What we know:
Shape of chain B: globular
Oligomer: heterodimer
Radius of gyration of chain B: 20 Å
Helix content of chain A: 55-70%
Structural class of chain A: mainly alpha
Largest interface: A-B, 38 and 44 residues
Structural class of chain B: alpha/beta
Number of helices of chain B: 12
Strand order of the largest sheet of chain B: 6-7-8-3-9-10
Number of strands of chain B: 10
Strand order of the largest sheet of chain A: 1-2
Number of domains of chain A: 2
Largest sheet of chain A: 2 strands, antiparallel
CATH topology of the largest domain in chain B: Rossmann fold
Amino acid sequence: MTTIPTPASRAPAAAFIFKKALISALVALVLFSLMIGIRTEAGPSGQLIYWTRFGDLAAMVGIVFGGSIVVELLRQWWGPVGTVRIVPPQMQSALAVAGRLVAPLLLIFAFLVPVIFYDQRYILDLGILVLTYVMLGWGLNVVVGLAGLLDLGYVAFYAVGAYSYALLATNFGWSFWVCLPLAGILAAFWGVLLGFPVLRLRGDYLAIVTLAFGEIIRLVIINWQSLTGGPNGVSGIPRPTLFGIPLTPGPNGLAAKLGIEFSPTHRIVFLFYLILALALLTNWVTIRLRRLPIGRAWEALREDEVACRALGINITTTKLTAFATGAMFGGFAGAFFATRQGFISPESFTFQESALVLAIVVLGGMGSQLGVALAALTMIGGFELFRGLEQYRMLVFGLAMVLLMIWRPRGLIGHRAPTVFLRHAQTISSDLVKEGHG
Amino acid sequence: MSDDILKVDHLTMRFGGIVAVNDLSFGAERRQITALIGPNGAGKTTVFNCVTGFYKPTSGAIRLAHDNGAQFRLETLKDFRISKLAKVARTFQNIRLFPGMTALENLMVAQHNALMLASGLTFLGLIGAPSWRTAEKRAIDLAKFWLDRIGLLDRADDAAGNLPYGDQRRLEIARAMCTEPALLCLDEPAAGLNARESAALSDLLLSIRADQGTSILLIEHDMSVVMEISDRIVVMDYGVKIAEGKPKDVRDDPKVIAAYLGVEDEEVAAVEQELGL
């Protein structure tokens, strides 16, 4: 682990820490002398008045000095970055068992949430929100995690799905169960449309164009007032029905048919199980696809595009199917979002949503289904957890993200599981797995 | 008239003002090993990239004829179609495996086109149709066969990027063979191998020619490998063919020696004497 410092090596180490802290304090002094040291304000008659706050400045510089000593000491205690810590074998096997149990336990917990928290509307709503992002994360994972195509405009497909359902349902009165596949197909269609122009682009360029695509869809929605209602959005979107039986208090409602007392919670629980089913469908399809030639071709594309071409893989159709599949799941999630909210407007489909979903995929560990689920729980749940901190919420959350990325730079689940094996499936270290470049 | 699987006719490839390959014509005989040699920068890899569709030649024709008589004009086909339809497989000078996938997965990706059809363009595979399951089993058997052939069966589940260098070279050849090619193009397969590994490579290539009946086109700098296994050698320098023939003829060709040793023709005699040829 750490080497025990001999007295000879301790003295220079102390000098080094002191020097570093002094430099940090000096930088802080220069930086804060104007920002904190002098305070200016407009006086009552418009003139400039200022006063000095050297006490605050001294305190700040002192904090930086002390803080940098603490950080250095922590660093020396921890050892160099990337130090491999040997975990005892019993512990390793215990961890492996725990790791295998995480996914089933999480699934069982998800099924039990409406039972445990039946009276807590807030928890149920939060659960629906988390599951929506889990589904979006799993959808984007196909494009980013498996095929290695950096997509910053995923929210566009979410919007297409939401507006497809909203407009079809409000204009033609079509049921949710008819519109759901249509929303997916329309989103997939737009995925292919986006795919065509960006096929030749890689890396940063691809990211910029997909980002632009997300904005184009949003701007079209805002400006095409006659169809989408523009900034006013679409309201009065029908709620989902249990295959035609509405969840309403009337005599035709589900509660009356089952002979139980009506409660508005029924609908929330129904929505919860609906999004759980949709998310699990996404997961199941993705796991199946990974084991099929198309899924392997996606991963091969992420690893080495030139080698794929040499093996006779049509990279055009392979990329397009990745875009279309990811977009389709985004479309499903969008249709669900529309029916849950009952009202949608372009405000819900800003770039921030794309960034959040991408952050979930990256944080989860690219390509890992369990990682994405855990990351969605962390991100959305963490957001809510820190709500009590008010204006410091984003600061604490950002700090947590930074620490997590130092600790696990390749995401929560940093290894890849093989899709086929002869004897035993060995997980592949993330050092070998490529992130994709296009 | 020899039976050529590949005929390159008056191939020229220009990059701006640079002529990498100039009016090159040669043939590769069916079920034979043809080696393409020459000093660095002679244009060998450019020829390979033209044959496998990674470059579009400036002019010239590249014809490929299968055993059943099917003809292909490779200069008109896109890269992935050359592998898919014309059945030309290749390896790369700097190994291009999928490092984050296992050895077995690498060989499964190579069977993409066959498996895509068997999986009913994914839909049959998604519902787990029996026809797909048998096709997948067959694909795994083919991969196992090749892993066994290159002696990597017990490392099938290891990430390709974790294998030693020599094993990666052989795995890349096995991956190319999993596409069941008519013509196998190898770009410096012995580069970076030690003498024992080179000898094993020679045996592997000879057995591929004998057992699978695959024609092989080979770029190689390791003369011990080239001279041992080639049936025919084409020598290039500055983008043109300077010699062609059987290994022993090429070895004694003064032009070849001049190209490799960088001397004028009249000095070749002196050099030959010096080397005791």
